Amino acid sequence: MIAHVRGQVAALSLDSAVIDVGGLGHLVHCTPGTIARLRLGEQAQLATTLVVREDSLTLYGFADADERDMFLLVQTASGIGPKVALAMLAVLAPDRLRRAIAESDHAVLTSVPGIGRKGAERIVVELKDRVGPAPVATSGGTGGDGEPWRAQVLEALQSLGWSARDAERAIDAVADSAGDEPDVGQLLRLALRSLSKA
């Protein structure tokens, strides 16, 4: 397994980054939240895992080892492949996902595209005893006044080539969707959708 890659960020898109490692560009598929932390031309390190298929070798990258470990764990549930696992982490932070499984919160799990009620029930049955105790929810980090998520989304949009003015307009358009526990990846997607309509 390729445990991590470290190098200069050579390119960014909504769902992937190219990391230049010793002159070799590694295409790494990531969640929008992970992409939001990367900056073109700057050094970055991503925890990674390589998924081998008959017709492809796909590298997935994560902000930290905890996110990567959850990606690997959820794939041990029946019917969950890398794309759905990545979608789960794009919508839910690792602790939130762990809590949803531990507490049998089917509503939270079905908020992930590609997971229906039966899929959520199967995930809970197969993984509940393996995720450990539900982490305690906190109001720190990206909660409260919402400023941290605004800065992250702004930087992500600018790194993708949008002007500061356009990026701030898009952020204002999606601010009502932030809620009490803002999800940077989801808000970034909404902001990009807003920009594409404009």
From TrEMBL:
<keyword id="KW-0547">Nucleotide-binding</keyword>
<dbReference type="InterPro" id="IPR036267">
    <property type="entry name" value="RuvA_C_sf"/>
</dbReference>
<dbReference type="GO" id="GO:0006310">
    <property type="term" value="P:DNA recombination"/>
</dbReference>
<dbReference type="InterPro" id="IPR011114">
    <property type="entry name" value="RuvA_C"/>
</dbReference>
<keyword id="KW-0234">DNA repair</keyword>
<keyword id="KW-0963">Cytoplasm</keyword>
<comment type="subunit">
    <text>Homotetramer. Forms an RuvA(8)-RuvB(12)-Holliday junction (HJ) complex. HJ DNA is sandwiched between 2 RuvA tetramers; dsDNA enters through RuvA and exits via RuvB. An RuvB hexamer assembles on each DNA strand where it exits the tetramer. Each RuvB hexamer is contacted by two RuvA subunits (via domain III) on 2 adjacent RuvB subunits; this complex drives branch migration. In the full resolvosome a probable DNA-RuvA(4)-RuvB(12)-RuvC(2) complex forms which resolves the HJ.</text>
</comment>
<protein>
    <recommendedName>
        <fullName>Holliday junction branch migration complex subunit RuvA</fullName>
    </recommendedName>
</protein>
<keyword id="KW-0227">DNA damage</keyword>
<keyword id="KW-0067">ATP-binding</keyword>
<dbReference type="GO" id="GO:0009379">
    <property type="term" value="C:Holliday junction helicase complex"/>
</dbReference>
<dbReference type="GO" id="GO:0006281">
    <property type="term" value="P:DNA repair"/>
</dbReference>
<keyword id="KW-0238">DNA-binding</keyword>
<dbReference type="InterPro" id="IPR000085">
    <property type="entry name" value="RuvA"/>
</dbReference>
<keyword id="KW-0233">DNA recombination</keyword>
<keyword id="KW-0347">Helicase</keyword>
<dbReference type="GO" id="GO:0009378">
    <property type="term" value="F:four-way junction helicase activity"/>
</dbReference>
<dbReference type="InterPro" id="IPR003583">
    <property type="entry name" value="Hlx-hairpin-Hlx_DNA-bd_motif"/>
</dbReference>
<dbReference type="Pfam" id="PF01330">
    <property type="entry name" value="RuvA_N"/>
</dbReference>
<dbReference type="GO" id="GO:0005737">
    <property type="term" value="C:cytoplasm"/>
</dbReference>
<comment type="similarity">
    <text>Belongs to the RuvA family.</text>
</comment>
<dbReference type="Pfam" id="PF14520">
    <property type="entry name" value="HHH_5"/>
</dbReference>
<dbReference type="GO" id="GO:0048476">
    <property type="term" value="C:Holliday junction resolvase complex"/>
</dbReference>
<comment type="function">
    <text>The RuvA-RuvB-RuvC complex processes Holliday junction (HJ) DNA during genetic recombination and DNA repair, while the RuvA-RuvB complex plays an important role in the rescue of blocked DNA replication forks via replication fork reversal (RFR). RuvA specifically binds to HJ cruciform DNA, conferring on it an open structure. The RuvB hexamer acts as an ATP-dependent pump, pulling dsDNA into and through the RuvAB complex. HJ branch migration allows RuvC to scan DNA until it finds its consensus sequence, where it cleaves and resolves the cruciform DNA.</text>
</comment>
<dbReference type="GO" id="GO:0005524">
    <property type="term" value="F:ATP binding"/>
</dbReference>
<feature type="region of interest" description="Domain III">
    <location>
        <begin position="145"/>
        <end position="198"/>
    </location>
</feature>
<keyword id="KW-0378">Hydrolase</keyword>
<dbReference type="InterPro" id="IPR010994">
    <property type="entry name" value="RuvA_2-like"/>
</dbReference>
<dbReference type="InterPro" id="IPR012340">
    <property type="entry name" value="NA-bd_OB-fold"/>
</dbReference>
<feature type="domain" description="Helix-hairpin-helix DNA-binding motif class 1">
    <location>
        <begin position="107"/>
        <end position="126"/>
    </location>
</feature>
<dbReference type="GO" id="GO:0000400">
    <property type="term" value="F:four-way junction DNA binding"/>
</dbReference>
<dbReference type="Pfam" id="PF07499">
    <property type="entry name" value="RuvA_C"/>
</dbReference>
<feature type="domain" description="Helix-hairpin-helix DNA-binding motif class 1">
    <location>
        <begin position="72"/>
        <end position="91"/>
    </location>
</feature>
<dbReference type="InterPro" id="IPR013849">
    <property type="entry name" value="DNA_helicase_Holl-junc_RuvA_I"/>
</dbReference>
